[in-house]
Amino acid sequence: MNPSELAHEPLSLRVKRRIKRAMGPAGVFLQGFVEHPVMVGSIIPSSRFTIRKMLAPVNWNECKLFVEYGPGVGTFCRPVLERLPRDGTLLVIDTNPLFIDYLKATISDSRFVPVLSSAANVEDIVRAHGFAHADYVLSGLPFSTLPDGVGQVIAAATHRVLRPDGAFLVYQFTAAARDFMARHFGHIDEGYEPLNVLPCKLYWGWKD
After folding, report:
1. Per-residue pLDDT for 18 more than 60?
2. CA terminus-to-terminus distance, the chain
3. CATH number for the domain harbouring residue 31
4. pLDDT digits (tens, 9 = 90+) for 182-197
5. Residue 99: domain span
6. Which of 46, 80, 109, 147 is the most buried (most CB within 10 A)?
7. Are residues 182 and 173 in contact, defined by beta-carbon separation less than 8 angstroms?
8. Residue 166 in contact with residue 140, Cβ under 8 Å?
9. What does the pLDDT average to over 56-73?
10. Which residues of 185-201 are buried (b: 16+ CB within 10 A; e: fewer)?
11. What is the dihedral sign for C-alpha 115, 158, 42, 150?
């Protein structure tokens, strides 16, 4: 948002932005976890080691659309934007308005598109923003605690929305996500990052 737009923004929204900045990412993340523990899954954001390892297989030169489910306070958003080409887009989807509002207030990159919705709607969201497919989809959603049926829907929709040779990148504390992925992705690479709270399992599901 540029200075002229900020000047005409309602006072209530400007105050809201200042409050969110003052809380900082840790405060916002903790609030989000307390309000929606089933959807957030962790009380502490991912470590830099997890981020580096999770994003390592991405071919950034061929990435026009990177999608993230459950961005939280942007722990992965900033590293993705640092790597993303100038003509690329980072589209993030979260059901929690607290996180979406915080991201809108703190990330001003024109390549960044936050959407308040469910990851199950990824196909409609991608099309609505002018794309035929996504190159990569990243998720930290806690598949083991999602409502019945939601994990299956998200995994299937993700496979459909990815381009051939695209990948579904997932980091989890349990192996539940892999079970959902295996129904759609024939090739799944696996990893593990002990330097995270908690240590987490990493999966890269490649679309043939």
Report:
1. no
2. 39
3. 3.40.50.150
4. 999 999 999 999 999 8
5. 3-206
6. 80
7. no
8. no
9. 96
10. beebeeeebeebeeebb
11. positive
3-class secondary structure for the chain? Answer: CCHHHHHCCCHHHHHHHHHHHHHHHHHHHHHHHHHCHHHHCCCCCCCHHHHHHHHCCCCHHHCCEEEEECCCCCCCHHHHHHHCCCCCEEEEEECCHHHHHHHHHHCCCCCEEEEECCHHHHHHHHHHCCCCCEEEEEECCCHHHCCCCHHHHHHHHHHHHEEEEEEEEEEECCCHHHHHHHCCCCEEEEEEECCCCCCEEEEEEECC
Number of domains in the chain: 1
Residue type, 157: A
**Do you know the residue count of the chain?**
208
Q: Are 114 and 92 in contact (CB under 8 A)?
A: yes
Tell me which residue of 170, 171, 172, 180 sits closest to 150, measured CA to CA. Answer: 180
Q: Residue 94 pLDDT more than 70?
A: yes
CB under 8 Å to 151, separation ≥6 — which residues?
Answer: 143, 176, 177, 180
In whole angstroms, what is the distance from residue 31 CA to residue 15 CA?
Answer: 18
Burial of 120 (0-12, 13-18, 19+ CB in 10 A): buried
